[in-house]
Amino acid sequence: MMATWGCRFLLQRGAQLISRAAAESPVQLLGCIRTVKTTTGFEEHLTEDNQKYMRNLMAEEYRSQTAERLNPLKDEPWPRHEWTEGSRRVGLVAVKLGMAPIWTKTGERHPVTLLQVQDCHVLRYLPKEEFDGRSAALVVGGKNVSPFYRTEKEMEMFRNAGVPPKQKVTIFKVSDNAIIKPGTPLYAAHFRPGQYVDVTAKSIGKGFQGVMKRWGFKGQPASHGQTKTHRRPGASGPGGDPAKVFKGKKMPGRMGNTYITAHGLKIWRVNTKYNVLYVHGTVPGHRNCVLKVRDTVLPSRHSTVLSPPFPTYFTEEEGDLDEDLFDENLFIHTEPSLTLT
Amino acid sequence: MAVCSRGLDKFATSLRFCRKLQLHNERLLSTSVCRPAADSEPPKFVPPSKPVIVDKTQTVASLRKFLSPEFVPPRQRTDPFKFFLERKDMIRRRKMLNIPEFYVGSILAVSMADPNASGKTNCFVGICIQRGGKGLGATFVLRNIINNQGVEICYELYSPRIQKIEVLKLEKRLDENLMYLRDALPEYSTVDPEMKPVPFSPTGEVPVNLIKVRMRPKPWSKRWERPKFNIQGIRFDLCMTPRQIEGAQKHAQPWLEYDMLKEYDTTKLEQQILKEVQQEMSK
Q1: Which of B66, B270, B72, B101 shows the shortest CA–CA distance to B171?
Q2: Maximum CA pair distance of chain A?
Q3: How far apart are CA B86 and CA B105, in angstroms?
Q4: Portion 127-146 of B in contact with A at CB < 8 A
Q5: Which among A292, A294, A289, A277 is positioned nearest to A96, based on CA atoms?
Q6: Which parts of the chain are coiled coil (chain B) (predicted)?
Q7: Which of A106, A117, A279, A340 to mutate to test the interface with B (most CBs of B within 10 A)?
Q8: Contact, B69 vs B131, CB < 8 A?
């Protein structure tokens, strides 16, 4: 954080201000003076050489940390349990790369989003009592970022897990038989083709938008005598009986930049070498945004048939998966062209 | 004695030298040239080894250095890794189906799998009027006139339903986009469905057809005379008065060619991608 101008409330002089300004308006009570915050960015008090050295040092440290963590099973893992009816397992944090077309064996074309799992680690275990009293939770983080712009409190959590700081930190509600030791890396092979997932991400922010774009109102005609009214909301409710506008009335305002979940997306293909998931359809968020991926909540798309790895996929154990795992209906490009019968 | 030994020595060294030369030259050039005169027996006829160095690492087709336009990534904020993954899939498909080099204006014949056709395949011959899309979703539009009805079909290059793409006539035109053929006289869009492929040597230059097309009377589907489309292949002098042509020039935006933010230089990218693609295809 750079040196910023902050506001300190004047608690002592507040009473005097209140008495003086009470006549004008109650809102302007809070007197503020500008103060300089003492926290500075890491670069401010270092020479150039030292800055470079710090950067290289952190990079090396994190490379060694990730290398250590590549073998979770040798690292005294927590006991693993079997899958039972009604158990929930962890999800992943992925980055949206872009979209591409995909064809089935019958020649149908579907659009598909590519999600890459970059440096996903389990950070903390929150037992039932600490979390919400009903189910345990695992804190998972994705995509490494630089440590220089993170507070000490955040860094503490990453240091305890022995992992570089992450851009996105999310909580997954998990059943007790699926808990994982903090510091374990999670890979894309955690999901298998044919499974269904829910993807949550912040939608693209559109700023302050009118009622037609935000809520899909029809607006008014472009001509035939309309005076200065083409995109306005029109009426705002019934008339004299309520004599008010109901709460939650759809009106213009800020649109986008909120968490949206897309449910029931099928996974067509998993690339285990580069940790890429090919997920059906579109997903909220812009390119290169960080998202949260987890098993579906929808009851009609349960993945009981597939038996995905529980609690998660460990490289040493299941080791040699093929570089690409395909869904059975998917057309693979190394096959000859289709001959429909 | 000294003379004999010296002579013998020379003979031995010369023999050794000649044998070495022989072995060395047998690999590259014909041996008849370096046959030593010192050999006592008459020279046996040894058929010369191949005199021409054939560069078998490069196939003839790749000698031309053509990179299909859908390999060049668009100017976006996408991670280049995503284009790398797509390119791998595109190359895998190209190894199964030969997608030949073609340009807008060439005549192609495409056979595709169709569940509703008899024999389950249908074949279409037409002139390529547009190549769009990047990556796996690249498309091309073929136009032809069948029974006095203009037909345009948009094919996806990497769709698994396409069984064969054949170039009947490879040529370029004056424009990158021939959509104006919709407003041109039908004779310019008609292609004989039974046409035989025109032979073309893979090492020659692609011929440019400088034809200028005659149009139907206005109105057209788009105002092709405007400088925004920059069309070179229409005979405007036959269908518009000089005054109309001048009027169309009023819509010119001459500052666009100096706009630095619109510059996108792809030469280095193209070279890199071409090298990568050729390496993968030859594996």
Answers
A1: B101
A2: 89
A3: 27
A4: 135-137
A5: A289
A6: none
A7: A340
A8: yes
Q: What share of chain A is helix, strand, coil (3-state, %, to 5)?
A: 20, 30, 50
Task: Give this complex's ipTM.
Answer: 0.82
Residues 6 or more apart whose Cβ sits within 8 Å of residue B194: none
Q: How many CA atoms lie within 13 A of B197 on its CB side?
A: 11
pLDDT per residue rounded down to tens, chain B (283 residues): 454 455 555 555 555 655 555 555 555 444 444 454 455 677 788 887 766 665 665 555 555 788 999 999 999 999 999 999 999 999 999 999 999 999 999 999 999 998 888 778 899 999 999 999 999 999 999 999 999 999 999 999 999 999 999 999 999 999 999 999 999 999 999 999 999 999 888 777 899 999 999 999 989 999 999 999 999 999 999 999 999 999 999 999 999 999 999 999 999 999 999 999 999 998 8
Contacts of A78 (CB under 8 A, 6+ apart): A179, A180, A181
> Any CB–CB contact under 8 A between A267 and chain B?
no
Cβ-proximal residues to B66 (8 Å cutoff; 6+ apart), any chain: B101
Structure tokens at A7: 């506001």
**pTM recorded for the entire structure:** 0.79
**Residue that has been written with the tokens 């792809």 in this structure:** B266
- Asked if the Cβ–Cβ distance from B120 to A107 is below 8 Å, we say no
Question: Which of B86, B135, B160 lies at the smallest CB-CB distance from A103?
Answer: B160
Cβ(A29)–Cβ(A67) below 8 Å: no
